[in-house]
Design a protein that fits this description.
heterodimer, A: 263 residues, mainly alpha, Cytochrome Bc1 Complex, Chain D, domain 2, two-stranded antiparallel sheet, 11 helices, 2% strand, B: 529 residues, Cytochrome Bc1 Complex, Chain C, 8 strands, 6% strand, globular
Chain lengths: 263, 529
């Protein structure tokens, strides 16, 4: 008891109590107002999820199953997360145009709102990777282009080619070009591993490193064609083609002309 | 005598008094060369070699062939702050800091590709026209040597910048060295001064690339040209052209002007390519580290067919006495190229052995008049082309929506099926062309004028061809096949019976021909038309 009363009379007791009281009130208010916010967004979210479910049943369920449980020809979508849906649908890969080896990038079938609703529906089935926010994608601020290049060459170039132009994989699968791909989709591809691509979790490549990779890809995209026509940036094959057509063609043409002139 | 002539005469006299050059010059400046566009193909190689020497010298002023690690601080932002070898950093500096450096690098690389293309088309011209026959067999072998060394020299140049692509190429070269049974791993250690990649290889290949091989090139090219000079140039058959003369224009002034002009045109085309088309953008590849590789890593085209052979090889491996023999690399990487280059070098001797023709030849063959030789050439080209296409299988697969597996199986089957098919088709084509020639000589040119005879018969008017043309179509000789005896006079089988039998067979194939129109046949038919 003696101890307690001594503490009560301590010089700092007043200010500490004041801070404690302010903190308690502030926290309570924060929680109360947050609950309020959450209640409204829950309503909006369930509406979006319902809308997403509608779209899913019409456009996706014939392959992925009525409850997204997957089927003979399509995988289960339970736990793939909103990021997967956003990547596959917003880039037009899903719904697939045909049963080829790999879904191709094409004009998206659904609007941004519809994609969002679909993503929320699939995310509601089980937790999975989320769509990165604008704040998370500020690669100009958070990325380093040189580091991104190193990471790209170590992890990505073996399939996507040294200048992110894409490349062939086995059995008709391929790594697509990354030119003109939105940063959000590049990020989503890394965290969800679509098609033949492996998942690069935040443990293998941290979010900052992912931004560095995006920054490097964007710098390659913006790079002018140094040294003349880039010939597709696919290496010596196009160079060989050019020298066997234009190069030797011009020279043989001149040789024929030179031999003709003497007549 | 004008003042100018007097001065020129005095200078010439001064030089001649001290060198005795006048007699030699007079003889050689009036030397006659035959005129044909295909005789300029070799000059493309010579001139691009000169361009390579000049642009290469420029590059050595700044290139640092060292594996010393440096931090890049140049002006190419995406690589700033990265650790890299001095070789790579200095190549970046040549590209971005040195005035005109990138243009020079690109001219050097395009000139290398043109050099190799030139060698191949020149070789094709020499082969298909039979210009390698006696007395030019040695020059043929020198040419094959230049082709082989050119591939090596090009590969070394491609490897020097130490970028991701060149490092990948060196890695494959190391694998091919290691595939040699027993000595392979020792040789690889010897070449690399230890384990791959090490620090010794780039400086070593630099010396070979800029000193040893160019020296050998200079020597071989000199001998190659001196032999052409001494043996005189071959010429296509035609009126007035014989095995004993050369019909054409003198070196001075006609060929001096033509050859000199052609040099500048080759330089111009190379500089044009260097200025408008990017080649080997090393800054995009990044510095080499063994942990990295890029999709679509290809060698330059002259090694592309070797890469294509390796790519289509099935995964064969055997282990004997604890040693692994990688047939999948050994066969396509060493054995097949070895057979091809040996066959190429020995071809003149094989042909003269098979035909028994040991005479000198200065008049060229028209390819159709040597059907078997032409067909063998088409076969070899088809083989190389199939493997070259497979060397770019991944790029072709993505470009034309094919799969790599389809490409690989196509190549595996085509490399066996298509060359013999090319042989048969080419041979038939040649014989058909011979038949057409014979027809042309005997029946003349179809004029397309149809005439109705008084008896109602329709007939097309044929015009006789000019005597020059007729001579061209009938002047070649058709060799009879060898008939080497299998039995001697007493009916006893000779020791060389089997050899003779084989020779007879090959020689029969070599001598396949449509009999050319003879003078008597022509005369006989003259009444008809």
């Amino acid at each position: 008891m003696k101890q307690l009363s001594r503490l009560r009379r301590h010089r700092a007791a007043g200010p500490i109590l004041l801070i404690f009281a302010l903190f308690t009130i502030g926290t309570t208010f924060q929680v109360a107002s947050a609950v309020d916010q959450e209640e409204t967004s829950i309503a909006a979210r369930s509406a979006a999820i319902d809308e997403g479910r509608e779209i899913f049943l019409k456009g996706c369920s014939s392959c992925h199953g009525l409850n997204a449980e997957g089927g003979e020809i399509a995988p289960s979508l339970i736990g793939v997360g909103a990021a997967s849906v956003d990547f596959q649908v917003a880039t037009g890969r899903m719904p697939m145009a045909d049963m080829s080896q790999q879904a191709m990038r094409k004009a998206p079938v659904y609007s941004a709102e519809e994609v969002n609703a679909l993503a929320m529906y699939v995310a509601s089935l089980a937790p999975g990777p989320k769509v990165p926010t604008e704040e998370m994608l500020n690669y100009e601020r958070d990325g380093s282009v040189a580091e991104g290049g190193e990471l790209f060459r170590t992890n990505c170039a073996m399939c996507h080619n040294f200048a992110a132009q894409g490349g062939a994989l086995t059995q008709g699968k391929y790594a697509p070009t990354l030119m003109g791909v939105e940063p959000r989709h590049i990020y989503e591809a890394m965290i969800t591993g679509p098609q033949a691509m492996p998942v690069f979790s935040d443990k293998t490549i941290t979010p900052e490193e992912k931004l560095s990779i995006i920054k490097w890809i964007k710098s390659v995209e913006a790079e002018p064609q140094l040294g003349g026509a880039a010939l597709g940036r696919v290496g010596p094959v196009t160079e060989g083609l050019l020298v066997w057509t234009l190069g030797i063609g011009l020279l043989i043409g001149v040789a024929v002309w030179l031999a003709m002139k003497a007549k | 005598m004008t003042a100018r002539e007097r001065i020129a005469g005095n200078v010439a006299g001064y030089v001649d008094d001290r060198t005795g050059a006048a007699k030699w010059m007079k003889k050689n400046l009036t030397k006659v060369f035959p005129d044909h566009w295909s005789f300029l193909l070799g000059e493309i190689c010579l001139y691009s070699f000169v361009i390579l020497l000049l642009s290469g010298t420029f590059l050595t002023f700044w290139f640092d062939p060292s594996m010393r690690e440096v931090i890049y601080e140049g002006s190419y932002e995406p690589l700033q702050g990265l650790e890299m070898s001095a070789a790579y950093a200095s190549t970046l500096d040549i590209s971005f800091e040195v005035r005109g450096g990138l243009l020079m690098r690109q001219i050097h690389h395009w000139a290398a590709l043109i050099f190799m293309v030139g060698i191949v088309v020149h070789l094709m011209r020499v082969y298909f026209t039979g210009a390698f026959r006696k007395p030019r067999e040695f020059n043929w072998i020198i040419g094959v040597g230049l082709l082989t060394l050119g591939i090596v020299e090009g590969f070394l140049g491609y490897s020097l910048p130490d970028d991701l692509l060149s490092g990948t190429g060196i890695r494959i070269a190391e694998a091919i060295i290691q595939a040699l049974p027993v000595v392979g791993s020792y040789l690889a250690f010897f070449a690399f001064g230890g384990a791959f990649p090490g620090v010794a290889f780039i400086p070593r290949i630099y010396t070979v690339h800029v000193l040893l091989l160019p020296g050998i090139f200079l020597a071989l090219i000199t001998v190659h040209l001196m032999l052409v000079w001494y043996q005189k140039h071959t010429q296509f058959p035609g009126p007035g052209r014989t095995e004993k003369n050369v019909v054409g224009y003198p070196l001075m002034p006609v060929y001096m002007a033509k050859a000199g002009g052609f040099f500048f045109i080759v330089f111009g085309v190379t500089a044009f390519l260097g200025a408008v088309a990017s080649i080997n953008p090393i800054w995009l590849y990044g510095p080499y580290t063994p942990g990295q590789v890029s999709a679509g890593s290809q060698p330059d085209w002259y090694m592309g067919w070797l890469d294509g052979l390796v790519r289509m090889a099935p995964p064969l491996e055997t282990v004997t006495f604890g040693y692994t023999i990688s047939w999948n690399i050994l066969i396509p990487g060493l054995i097949l190229p070895g057979i091809m280059f040996t066959g190429l070098a020995l071809y003149p001797f094989i042909e003269s052995w098979a035909t028994g023709d040991k005479r000198e030849h200065h008049l060229l063959d028209r390819p159709r008049n040597a059907p078997t030789r032409t067909a063998i050439g088409a076969m070899a080209l088809t083989f190389t082309l199939v493997s070259l296409i497979n060397g770019g299988n991944d790029i072709i697969a993505t470009t034309f929506d094919l799969t790599i597996n389809q490409m690989m199986w196509f190549s595996r089957i085509a490399i066996i099926v298509l060359p013999p098919l090319a042989y048969v088709i080419t041979k038939r084509l040649c014989l058909s062309l011979q038949r057409a020639d014979r027809d042309l000589v005997l029946h003349g040119r179809e004029t397309g004028r149809l005439v109705r005879m008084p008896n109602g018969e329709f007939t097309e008017i044929h015009e006789p061809i000019s005597p020059e043309k007729a001579w061209l179509l009938t002047s070649h000789e058709q060799l009879a096949p060898l008939e080497l005896p299998e039995y001697d006079g007493a009916g006893v089988r000779r020791p060389a019976a089997i050899k003779n039998k084989i020779r007879n067979r090959i020689s029969r194939s070599m001598a396949t021909a449509v009999p050319k129109a003879t003078e008597t046949e022509r005369k006989e038919l003259e009444g008809h038309h």
